[in-house]
Amino acid sequence: MGHLVKIGIDGIEPEPGAPAADRLVSGNPQFRTWNAEEADGGLYAGIWEATPGKWQIVYDEWEFCHILSGRSIVTEEGGDPHHLGAGDSFVLRPGFRGTWEVLETTRKEYVIRL
């Protein structure tokens, strides 16, 4: 195994998912996750996609995100909404609480550190 891992969906079976029922705010969002890297110490990288809907999010981990396509709104409790689309990058820090609303199916690259 080499030291360079390409982040993509080719050859990786997506893991299906959805928000937990008690976090769902509206719609019927469905997730697909292509994990390209899982390293010792709780490091993950890959691609995630969600269909329209809105749900509550709570982060105990650190996550870097880069939106590849779609449109979403991420709002921290007590904060202003952040309208996100293709080309936008951001970090969600441990302790983040709020909502994620997918307006148009959204695909992102991510790196998570537990």
From TrEMBL:
<dbReference type="InterPro" id="IPR011051">
    <property type="entry name" value="RmlC_Cupin_sf"/>
</dbReference>
<feature type="domain" description="(S)-ureidoglycine aminohydrolase cupin">
    <location>
        <begin position="38"/>
        <end position="110"/>
    </location>
</feature>
<dbReference type="InterPro" id="IPR008579">
    <property type="entry name" value="UGlyAH_Cupin_dom"/>
</dbReference>
<dbReference type="InterPro" id="IPR014710">
    <property type="entry name" value="RmlC-like_jellyroll"/>
</dbReference>
<dbReference type="Pfam" id="PF05899">
    <property type="entry name" value="Cupin_3"/>
</dbReference>
<protein>
    <submittedName>
        <fullName>Cupin domain-containing protein</fullName>
    </submittedName>
</protein>
